[in-house]
Structure formats: C-alpha cells, structure tokens
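Input sequence (362 aa), recorded before submission:
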Amino acid sequence: MSKNEAQAREELIDLAADFYDQFAGGEIPEMELPTRTKSNIVFDEDSNVWVYGDRTSKRSANSVSGARKLLKAVYTIEFLSDQLEEGRSSTLRELYYLSESWDNEEAQFNSQDESNQLVEDLEIVSGVTREDFHMRPEESGATLMGPLELREQTRRGEREIHCQEDVGEGGYQIPNNPDMIDFLDHDIDFVLAVETGGMRDRLVENGFDEEYNCLVVHLKGQPARATRRITKRLHDELDLPVVVFTDGDPWSYRIYGSVAYGSIKSAHLSEYLATPKADFVGIQPKDIVEYDLPSDPLGDSDINALESELEDPRFQTDYWEEQIELQLDIGKKSEQQALASRGLDFVTDTYLPERLDDMGVL
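Predicted structure, token format:
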C-alpha cells in the first residue's frame, strides 16, 4: 500500500471512529458538510477559483432518513477501507450494485445518484479524493494528441509514451488518476481543450497539433475529473497556456466554466481540478453573427440557462455578460462543426489561428 493509499484509509477509519465516539459520548452522530448550492459558491482570492462558502448542512441521525444516510456512510467506509487494504479498485457504478449484497437492507442505495453523492460527501469530510479511495468513474475515453512525452505508472510497471509518435489517430487515453503520470519532455506551445470528438478529429486530421505545437485534449463533452486534472497539471507544471474550444451554447459555456473555475458539485476540489487562467476560444455569439454560421434557434431551456449564467458568479465578467446578452438578443446557438460551412480547412487555416493570435496565444 502506497503512502497516499495508507493515508486515505486512515482518514476513512478516523471518520468512522468519530461516529463511534459521538455514540459513546451520548451524542447523536452527525456529519457536517458545506451546502452545495450556487448561492454558497465564493471566489477564493488566493487560489483564483470558486469554492464553497461558510454555509453548511448536516447529515444527522436525529431522524430516520438521516440515520439511514449515516448507516450507508459507515458501510461505504468499510467497503472502501477493505478495498484499499486489498489493493483493489472499483467503479462508482459497481459500488451502487455492490450495496445490494450488504446484509443490512437499510444500507443499500436506492440509486446511483445517491451512492455518487455519498462518495462526494466522504471526499469533503475526509479531505481525500475518490481517486485515492480507488474509486473510478466509467471510462471517459478522453484523449491527448500532441508533442508530449510522458511516463505512466501501470499495474504492469512503467511505460514511456510519446503522444504523437507512439499512438494511433485516437491519441493517448487519459487514465483515471493522472497523478500517476510524469511529464518527461515536450514541444508544446499551448493546450487546446476541445469539446466534441468531431472537431478533435478534424484538428488531428488537418495536422493542427503538428503545425502549431499544440496538445489537443478531447474533453468529450462535460469533462471528467481526470481530464480537468491533467489539464491543470499541464498548465501549472509545464507553464502552458490553456484554451477551451466549445460549441456556442449555454451548456458548452458551462463546460468551459468547469475547466476554468470548477463545478458546483465539486467545488471542494477546485484547487485540485480547476485552471482559472484557461481562456475561451469559441464558438462565441459574435462569431455566429460575424461568420453568418448555420445555427439553431434558442429553446426555452437555452434561454433559461443563459439567464441563469448571468447570475452565476463564474460568468460575471464584462466579456461573458456582453456575449450572453448578445446571444439572447440574436436568439441563436451554433456548433463547432458549423465552421465547416466555410470549408473543412477553415477552422485550422483561418478561425483558430486568427482567434489565438488575437488572444496572444500564437
């Protein structure tokens, strides 16, 4: 067992011991957590990321519902502790199904959302990430393609990989725990995090990564934690600019927000996952107008999401307020692939070079 694994197990056992001590002292056991709502997100001036504020809520055994939650927490702690001791790992989905074998039916989960949230609760109160608990999400499939050489620790030992020369067109798949990677060498000038697989493939086919010494990170939609973690490491450890290239709709702006500022549900990990200096490269609402891009009308859910973002502290800047208000005014949204209306090479020959030059990246 590694030092991190031993520490993770110790934190879990200490948490269970705290419940026992509360019982022994005649107290009603409880677990205090930050309130996970948008209104309890505050900007941390030191780390430049959004984190939970001072408001908290409690999981307490003073009700039947609260007692069930703590019972499930204890069973989960025992499972995770045993898993670490045995050097095993499991997925979040497996934890949900595995609970059906627990001898106490009251400890079994009613849904995967419930088990996912409990793992997040344990992260917060223990200060240990789920990766150190050996808990994995389902495979994200997110990849890297570009001039980066790295060393990965695997169960079969170390392996060194060049993320252009040693991989196929699909790129290097990001592992669940990117902290097991060492960066050995690189010729990267900037990191381009791309939302869609279609655009990622277009960039690679057109040789954008080679021509501009760019590391293309496929976010695969809303990025997994491993993707955000490796993006942050690339920025912090290699001092590389990070730009995020998404569709032009409110849901894609939230993808950018999760990379740059963190998400509400994982605000306790913002300093670990977020890259606050990441910039947004498009598609902007003004691009829809300037390039007359093929577009779709905003639906009611899009409008509500944009109006919500105007109230979201992560988007309360002059740039975002101007772009969101413009989008509400034109009533349109557009995808990355809409740039193909000007030719398959337009995105790599014109759009990205011009945008990145204006931003000072190229």
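Checked by second reader. The mean pLDDT is 88.
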